[in-house]
Each structure stands twice: as C-alpha cells, then as structure tokens.
Specification:
single chain; alpha/beta; seven-stranded mixed sheet; 8 helices; about 25% strand; globular
C-alpha cells in the first residue's frame, strides 16, 4: 500500500500589491495591462476611506462623484480586466533574496516584487506594544494559535473579523478574553447576549486599554479601571504600519504608493503613484530578465 505525498505549492507572482485603495487599484490595472502575473491583496469593498467619502470633486473624468460610486467604478475596472481581489490581511513581508515571502492571516504568498499601498494607520500603538512584539504581543491570532495550547490570551479587536480569530484561538487556548473596540457598548452587549453561541472559554470584557507590560512570564494589559494578565496579548487592528510589515527600507523590488508615502492625502495623487510604482516594478522585472536572474 502506497502513501500519497501531498505537496503544497505556493504560486510565485511577478508583482504582489498590498492594498485596494486608489494606489493599489491603479497599480494592479497598470501591471495587468503590462502582462504581469499579479496578486492584489485587500478588501473586496475597496477602501473605506474612499467608499465613505461624501463627494469627490477633483478626480479626473468624474464630476461630483460619491465615494460609493467611485469604489464601484474601481471594482468594475478590475473585473473588466479579470483582476480578482484576494481578501486577506498581511502581517509581514520578508525579503528572501530573489523573491518576497508575504505572510497573511489566511495564507502565505510569494512574489518577485511587492508594492505597498496600505494607506495610513492613524491608530497609535499602546505603550509597551512595540517593545513586546514577538515577546508576548502578536498581530495574528490564527498564525500563533498553536503556541497557546492550554494557555490564556487576550484579544483586542478593532473590527468584527477579530471575533473569528478569537474563536479560532479558543480552539487551542485554555481561556480567551475578547475585548471588542468597535461600536463599543452596542457590540459588547450584543456579544454578551449571544454568549451561548460562543465557546465556553471565551469571555467578553469591557475596558479601555492604556498600555502593555511584561511581568516575569506574563503579559499584562493595563486598562483605566483594572489590569488583566495572560500569557499573550493579540492586538488585531484593521491595518498595520509599514514599520511592522517590512523589516527595513530601500529593498530592491519593494515599492510604496499612496498615503503610505506621505502628504498630500489625495485620491488623485495615490492613483498616480500606484501607476508609477507598477511601471517601476515592471521595469525592475525586465532588468532581472535581461540579466538572466
């Protein structure tokens, strides 16, 4: 009797674009037209910053268009070119020499070049958060769940998707404390009312996080009215800062576009930079090909 060897192959793309705002969409369109194999990672709903805009007056070709309408136009353009959006949140991008390894919450990916079009994360880190990153603080519960077998963890969720990660973590952990920071009391009350549908080892907690400390072998979340200790703390934001995504700058094959590059924070500027970033990536790939690398 012969066993079946299953080998999981990771597709290596020419260009991976992280972010589906104007910069990411523009980069994807340009790269696709240039005939490159692309991966577009982000939100199928495009950018919240775009979709929630009341009226946009300075986007060429669209007079007084709403954010919702512009988002739909972006989606229509992507679909016309058969460009799919891979819904995932990227936790880290590693330069591996000849390619980049992209670690997402759902899957891992590989690409010869990467364009960062993630926008700007305006939330401030908690005191002690960065200092303890990798030492008890993590940004991905699904990635690190195996490390918390029979242990306790705190999950701070900034959106509804964080609850799914908390539930996944609870399959392994002994105890999960889940703190939703979206819509505050309304969602906490809703979650508590539906507690029967959650795993028994998940506790919904209220509080305002102030800082994170490591005390001996425990992580401590300091809130306004109390402290809570556990083996680890997961901070699940909607996006990550560039410094946490990529260890280092000036890496060949890595490009940035849109709000991530700084002011002015304009849709038109972001789209233009996405186009330039894609052309730069295409030129870089052509140079590699000529050099036989």
């Amino acid at each position: 009797m012969f066993g079946i060897l299953s080998i999981l192959l990771i597709i290596r793309y020419d260009i991976a674009i992280i972010g589906t705002g104007p910069a990411g969409v523009s980069a994807a369109i340009t790269a696709k037209i240039r005939g490159r194999k692309i991966l577009l990672i982000g939100n199928n709903k495009i950018s919240d910053k775009v979709s929630k805009a009341h009226i946009i007056k300075n986007y060429p070709g669209f007079i007084d268009i709403t954010g919702k309408e512009l988002s739909q136009a972006f989606n229509n353009h992507l679909k016309s070119l058969s460009i799919d959006i891979t819904e995932d949140m990227v936790n880290a991008v590693y330069a591996m020499g000849k390619y980049f390894h992209i670690q997402g919450k759902k899957n891992n990916y590989e690409a010869l070049t990467v364009i960062l079009a993630t926008g700007v994360d305006v939330t401030k880190p908690y005191a002690g958060e960065y200092e303890n990153l990798g030492r008890g603080v993590s940004y991905c519960a699904t990635c690190d769940a195996a490390l918390y077998k029979e242990r306790e963890a705190i999950v701070i969720g900034f959106n509804e998707e964080a609850l799914s990660e908390a539930e996944f973590l609870a399959q392994t952990a002994k105890k999960v404390y889940y703190m939703p920071l979206y819509n505050k009391d309304k969602d906490i009350n809703t979650l508590q009312a539906g507690k029967d549908s959650l795993k028994d080892n998940i506790d919904i907690i209220k509080g305002k996080p102030l800082s994170i400390e490591r005390r001996e072998d425990k992580m401590v979340l300091i809130m306004e009215d109390r402290e809570l200790a556990a083996d680890g703390i997961f901070v699940l934001r909607e996006s990550m800062k560039p410094a946490q995504l990529v260890p280092g700058i000036n890496i060949k094959g890595l490009y940035a576009a849109g709000d991530i590059t700084g002011v002015p924070y304009q849709y038109v500027k972001a789209a233009g930079e996405g186009n330039v970033a894609a052309l730069s990536a295409v030129g870089y790939l052509a140079a590699l090909n000529r050099a036989g690398k």
